[in-house]
Amino acid sequence: MSLKEKAKMMIPDSIYLRYRYRKIMGKSLNLNNPQTFNEKLQWLKLYDRKPIYTTLVDKYEVKPYVAGLIGEQYIIPTLGVWEHFDDIDFDKLPDQFVLKCSHDSGGLVICSDKRKLDKDKAKQKIEVSLKKNFYWMAREWPYKNVKPRIIAEQYMADDLRDYKYFCFNDEPKLILVCSERFTEDGLKEDFYNESWKHLDIVPTLHQDSVHSIPEPVHFETMRQLAKKMSEEINFSRIDFYEVEDRVYFGEITFYPESGFEGFRPDKWDNEFGKWLSSSDMYCLECGGVKYYLTSSCGNLLNTKALVDYKFFCYNGVADCVMVCTERETGEPKFYFFDRNWELRRWNIRGKNAPEGFSLPKPSNMDKMFEIAEKLSIGIPYVRVDLYSINGNIYFGEMTFYPQSGFDTNLLEEADIALGEMLDLTKSNHRFADK
After folding, report:
1. Which DSSP string corresponds to 194-256?
2. Of 38, 59, 140, 314, which shows the fewest CB atoms inside 10 Å?
């Protein structure tokens, strides 16, 4: 691994995604109040991290899970599984098969005639994929702990067409049809609605097919299966194939194009985003406790005079809270308060505040301290941001390195005091093995 790659791995997910989003999409990423489909996919990468997602993206482990959910008859048969390419006994494989890696999106070798297979080329492609952790490419958390393996599947058809159902919670809203994958002109992508009407949505990476695509025979069956498989998932794309009058499950994808896909016209990025915000998509589960930032709160987050409460937490102990006010003016003001709501003159503005200065203390401040402490258990340091709106508490975000560790607004005595509370000997926190 190069020094550049190692350095990239040290960048926190939220900062890395902001950088990639601006570089690819050409605009800033709004994580505080995401609006577009692609923005919300980035938000979900950071905050919707259910352990089951790792199973669902594992191309080997997902099969028994899906079979138990919808039936074995929809699963493409697995011919073998190996950890190393040299372990594959090609003599035991049929004349046609597909090799793919369990942990990524690219380690694929399609063999339509075993006699013509270039094994050296196939080995090179597969082994390159085996060495990669797909998570680091675009911080798609479900892939982080997938075990790299090679699987061989039954060869299905020469011109396989994908039917990809875009599901918002358990509602399949759109179908993306991928066709002509191996033609001279390359892959074509066409969007259809639930009535099989062709839509004027064109992904920027591919073109529509010039051929009319008929409604699949088992369109409704696939829709019902997608509906069942997407229950309790904020967004998922469920892929199917229709081969010789039978339906087969393909894969589950949580972040199409890693959440960096443009659409023409670009209005569709906002339209998809509205569908995603119609559910309680903003959910953080930590330590068995779920915290929700719902779409209704999303509207409240636009309210003027919204106050942020940023709790400085050390391994389950919330020492103080930094209160952010007047954000809507473009010049937010920050003040530190301890648990007794006494002003700590730790930054320039606090130091210059008049004697007896204070801010209104929310009635649920003790509860916010309690929530921040629950979220920070086992973490040497984290800043937990919360809101108090109409008497209700809402989760904002978790920050591990405020100002990337370069906060020049802190007074020297505050920097020292905060540093004394951070015990680096306890850095093996609860996420260390994830």
Report:
1. TT--B-S-EETTSB--SSPPPPPTTHHHHHHHHHHHTTT-SEEEEEEEEETTEEEEEEEESSG
2. 314
129, containing H or E segment:
helix 119-130
The tens digit of pLDDT for each residue in 81-118 reads 999 999 999 999 999 999 999 999 888 999 999 999 99
Contact residues for 425 (Cβ-Cβ < 8 A; gap 6+): none
Whether the CB-CB separation of 95 and 79 falls below 8 Å is answered with: no
How confident is the model at residue 335, as a pLDDT? 96
Q: State the Cα–Cα distance between residues 133 and 142, nearest whole angstrom.
A: 11
On the question of pLDDT at 432 being above 70, the answer is no
C-alpha span between 256 and 243 (Å, rounded): 24
CATH 3.30.470 in the chain, residue ranges:
282-426
Q: Name the residue with tokens 């942020």.
A: 308
Tens digit of each residue's pLDDT (9 = 90 or more) over 116-172: 999 999 999 999 999 999 999 999 999 999 999 999 999 998 888 999 999 998 899
Helices and strands (DSSP H and E) totals, the chain: 13, 19
CATH number of 282-426: 3.30.470
pTM (2 decimals)?
0.68
Distance CA 103, CA 62 (A): 11
- Answer yes or no: are the C-beta atoms of 350 and 324 closer than 8 Å: no
Tell me how far apart the 2 most distant CA atoms of the chain are, in Å. Answer: 86
Segment (H or E) for 338: strand 333-338
